[in-house]
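Anyone up for a design puzzle?
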């Protein structure tokens, strides 16, 4: 029988082996907390690789010895850590306790199985730690039975604040690896691209579970990321989002206290520039349709981009790309408009499938641009509903590096990273002669849980566009404040 108490592999070899068996995965994964992560660890698979188990538990034991942790028994957090706890128990002759996930509804109804005395010390064993919640759940059950828990050992600490959170609860957490170390080793052996290493570092930085936030922000003991999009303030979301355009937009929305986008559907450069200069102070975004401008020129673009700096807004070209990847690449980068050179955001129909995003992304990503997918429309009888909308959300989820949200009419995703932007807005609801449907800013932001209202004719055709812009800005932002309260 193999010696279960010694490490067979070096730490680097163990990381490479765990990568080989796909216990470490890299891409885009939804975590238990609801947030998306570029790295995912599924250590459940290690039970299929008995040759690796002695190294895993060997390093866990080494940490316990190095730190001189004393304890009477050990207990694994169900379920992945159970085999690890069993091996440690057998190879080091330490009694083990089992925590049930739910008490049996017959017999003794015990949550903790095994023999122990109140006051015994227990070491908790876990595979991966993110926020520390799973360890704390087990600790709580052990403490209810009178056991004393002051230490936990884990194979991998994701480095996202779990250590501090456990420390605040009187538990010292000891790890074999951190996520950062794993990533560095895999990079060293050419298993991970530099770009992915950077993405993961950024993710760790931005997704730290602050112990104080966890206990105070939502009372439920949940990390703030677990809250749905509609409950999180614009500025808080700016902190959670990784796309630079989303961050900039959400930040300026809170600073300028506006969630208004004006759709400047006018047909000469001079009219548009004059209108943008007037309404600029009240908007977070200006939306254009450059293909309706009679006298389009690069001079128009330089004036528009100057105004974007002067009034601090984002430029959204409502181009609605809807062709195959190769064609949209050319449409986005070239022609007389060269949209990718100046529009922070553009949008696309999901009709052609994800190829449209692949094409746009090739041009837009290096320039730091973002794209909205059209998931729903405001016009009567449109076909963007049901499964079409659901599939659109899926395409967005698979392309978060470029897709930053949706043009939509309802709350279609709870993810804080996805902006919801809604056209078809006027101060009173109704319809135009061609089937455009209007709802009020309050309805859109408060009831449909959208983030941003788009208003065209309600402002640009108003007698005084400045007064109208102020009224829409006030209506939209007060609905947001009401939603937050
Ligand atoms: N727009 C819509 N509905 C949609 C999408 C885009 O109205 O579903 I996608 C655009 C069209 C127009 C602006 O440029 O938003 C709305 O203008 P009015 O507020 O003037 O209707």
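Challenge accepted. My sequence:
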């Amino acid at each position: 029988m193999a010696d279960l108490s010694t490490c067979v592999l070096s730490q680097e070899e163990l990381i490479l082996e765990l990568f080989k068996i796909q216990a470490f995965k890299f891409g885009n994964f939804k975590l238990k907390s609801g947030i998306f992560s570029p790295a995912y660890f599924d250590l459940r698979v290690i039970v299929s690789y008995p040759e690796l188990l002695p190294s895993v538990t060997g390093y866990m034991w080494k940490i316990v010895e190095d730190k001189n942790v004393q304890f009477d028994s050990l207990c694994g957090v169900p379920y992945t850590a159970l085999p690890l706890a069993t091996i440690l128990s057998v190879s080091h002759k330490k009694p083990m306790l089992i925590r049930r996930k739910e008490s049996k509804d017959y017999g003794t109804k015990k949550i903790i199985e095994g023999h122990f005395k109140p006051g015994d010390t227990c070491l908790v064993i876990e595979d991966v730690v993110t926020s520390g919640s799973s360890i704390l759940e087990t600790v709580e059950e052990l403490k209810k039975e009178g056991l004393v828990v002051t230490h936990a050992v884990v194979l991998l600490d994701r480095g996202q604040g779990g250590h501090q959170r456990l420390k605040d609860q009187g538990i010292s957490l000891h790890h074999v690896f951190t996520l950062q170390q794993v990533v560095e080793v895999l990079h060293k052996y050419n298993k991970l691209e530099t770009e992915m290493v950077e993405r993961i570092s950024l993710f760790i930085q931005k997704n730290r579970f602050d112990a104080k936030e966890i206990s105070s922000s939502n009372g439920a003991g949940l990390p703030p990321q677990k809250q749905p999009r509609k409950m999180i303030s614009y500025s808080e979301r700016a902190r959670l989002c990784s796309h630079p355009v989303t961050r900039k937009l959400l930040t300026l929305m809170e600073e300028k206290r506006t969630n208004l986008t004006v759709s400047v559907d006018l047909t000469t450069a001079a009219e548009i520039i004059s209108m943008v200069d007037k309404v600029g102070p009240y908007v977070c975004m200006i939306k254009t349709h450059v293909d309706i401008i009679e006298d389009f020129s690069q001079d128009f673009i330089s004036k528009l981009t100057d105004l974007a700096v002067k009034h601090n807004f984002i430029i959204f070209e409502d181009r609605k790309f809807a062709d195959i990847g190769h064609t949209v690449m050319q449409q986005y980068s070239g022609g007389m408009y060269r949209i990718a050179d100046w529009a922070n955001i553009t949008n696309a129909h999901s009709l052609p499938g994800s190829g449209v995003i692949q094409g746009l992304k090739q041009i837009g990503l290096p320039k730091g641009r973002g794209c909205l997918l059209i998931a729903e429309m405001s016009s009567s009888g449109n076909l963007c509903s049901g499964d079409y909308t659901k599939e659109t959300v899926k395409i967005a989820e698979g392309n978060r590096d470029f897709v930053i949200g949706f043009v939509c009419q309802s709350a279609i995703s709870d993810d804080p990273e996805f902006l919801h932007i809604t056209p078809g807005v006027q101060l009173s609801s109704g319809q135009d002669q061609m089937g455009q449907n209007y709802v009020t800013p309050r309805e859109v932001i408060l009831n449909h849980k959208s983030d941003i209202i788009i208003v065209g004719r309600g402002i640009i055709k108003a007698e005084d566009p400045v007064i109208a812009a102020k009224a829409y800005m006030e209506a939209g932002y007060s609905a947001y404040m009401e939603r937050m309260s």
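A detail worth pointing out: The longest strand covers residues 148-157.
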